[in-house]
Amino acid sequence: MSANAENIEGNVEAPLLGEDLDSFTLPWEHDNALIRLPAQFIRWLIAVIPRNISKVWMVLLGFIIIVAGIILAISVSRGQLPILLLVLVAGAGIALAIVGGVSRERR
Fold it and tell me: Could you tell me the pTM of the whole model?
């Protein structure tokens, strides 16, 4: 294309302002705040949640072990042995050990 090329309407064609038609602006770097801010928040969530999900699971499993252990102790003191509760405490303990080991490996 020459410098003075004209289009169908007779206007002089000008190159794009340094941009290629195939160029792309990342959503979190966009000029429009309605696009940029939600994209930055979603990007932040994607970065934060995987790092802290093991902590959430550890707290949840610890809570299950404490509550189920108290109920199990009360049941045993009354002469009952609820097998389902015993399995729940043991399973939560095993899961807590697994989550703790996985979170330690990620560091």
Answer: 0.48
